[in-house]
Structure prediction request, 404 residues.
Amino acid sequence: MSRNNFIEKLLDGVEVEWKAVSEIFHLKNGYTPLTSKKEFWEGGSIPWFRMDDIRKNGQILNDSLQKISESAVKGGKLFPANSIIIATSATIGEHALITVPYLANQRFTCLSLKEAYVETFDIKFIFYYFFLLADWCKKNTTMSSFASVDMDGFRKFQIPIPCPENPKKSLEIQAEIVRILDAFTALTAELTAELTAELTARKKQYNYYRDQLLSFDEGEVEWKTLGGVVEINTGQKPSEILETATEFDYINAGTTRSGYATGYNCEGDTITTPSRGQGGIGFVGYQKEPFWLGPLCYKMRSLDEAILTNKYLFYFLQSKSELLLYLKKEGGVPAVNKSDLAKLEIPLPPINKQKRIVTILDKFDALTNSISEGLPREIELRQKQYEYYRDLLLSFPKPEEIEA
Prediction:
């Protein structure tokens, strides 16, 4: 069903009025009480929400992972129940409906309905409509030391009121949208959970067979130190950081981001092992295309592909991620020293056997990890299908569209 047909049937000819976020909501920033004051953090009963709450418990929340004391509340005032938090810096766009009085940290902007609009909106309808606001936020950020939302535009973002002249009918339309989306959300979550459980089982199976393929009896194959067969280089900071995307990915500490390098220092079939820095130790990645490697990583490439193929090297290092963690040196910033990495030993079966192992693992890896095929792709498609139909239900005609 097209968007126009769907929303027209739902609205049944009623008008839609649009109001700016700043007209409908009180907007206040969250904050973090002083961590140096133990009395703010001990024995508290006030819910204090962070991004971890959304990640662990979802987007409709009635309790927080961490509490603060009443003495930590500025002016003794909490944000009211049935209001919404949305991240306007850092992890931009993540939002949640909070059903209890609460506080949140400074990452969030907290929005509560003004008294004049409490009877106008179903707050669950607003929660769903804020997925569109979240998309807008991600596309309208300002760059300084960190990304943050264009708050002037945020305040002007328009919210629809269906059938404004008849509040009862307006709430019925909103409630029907909520009913459909609640059911669709539950169904999508159930299907995704089933696929995720299957994916977890397959990954365990994949890891088992990968480790079996890379295990050899004593004397069966020759072993060499990585330093003897592999070139190991440390990444570096890009010469310039760009705001717009380039053809080169920037990889650092186990994360990949676009829009950074004006050139590159690594290319071709290359292995990266982010093994230095606060996060990502033990992660192993494989790159086919040119990229820029950050300073918290090592780039590794076979010195002679007639002895060791790069893809076999990747799978071997992937199977040793726990060993890489064991090599981590404590004190200051946790790190794996290049000299310790070079001392690791790798089994070197004949090159034809390496290629056979790689072929088997490539196929298995595609089923368990590939975002273009297999279960990860199926999970992604379920989510995109959900977002498509959700947006259909929320695509109210703007005035210019009605005139057209």
